[in-house]
Amino acid sequence: MRARDLLFTGRTPTAAEALEWGLVSRVVAHEAVLDEASAALAAICHTVPGARGDIERALDAQIGLYDHIALRDRVPGEEAREGLRAFAERRSPAWVHPDLRREGRL
Q1: Residue 44, CB half-sphere, CA atoms under 13 Å: how many?
Q2: What residue spans define the domains of the chain?
Q3: φ/ψ bin of 22: left (φ > 0), alpha (ψ from -120 to 50), beta (otherwise)
Q4: pLDDT tens string 40-58
Q5: DSSP letter assigned to residue 14
Q6: What does the alpha-carbon distance between residue 103 and residue 89 come to, in Å, rounded to a whole number?
Q7: Integer CA distances (angstroms), 96 to 6, 93, 101, in order
Q8: pTM of the entire structure?
Q9: d(Cα 84, Cα 106) in Å, to the nearest integer?
Q10: Rounded CA gap, 66 and 63, in Å?
Q11: Backbone angles phi, psi at 91, to 5 degrees
């Protein structure tokens, strides 16, 4: 149900929601992001390189396959072009009903 909510509405979950739902592994204050990222990278660098490669290939084979199929089918389409234009122009896309359109940052 959460996936449907986000996919159909385009809503961005809050950091707290993303953490609660397991979409992210941690939430840190803005000023601590670089330190936390550096610590995570150091931990990753201590793992076995071959195992990291195996994990990455396995994830790409499963999750990446669906991403590639979706992108291949959607990116060249007119909806994607209109969405990118609308984003760049900071307006609602043409497919949004006129009564529901918003101007400015969406």
Answers
A1: 10
A2: 1-46, 48-106
A3: left
A4: 999 998 889 899 999 988 8
A5: P
A6: 9
A7: 17, 6, 6
A8: 0.54
A9: 12
A10: 6
A11: -145, 170
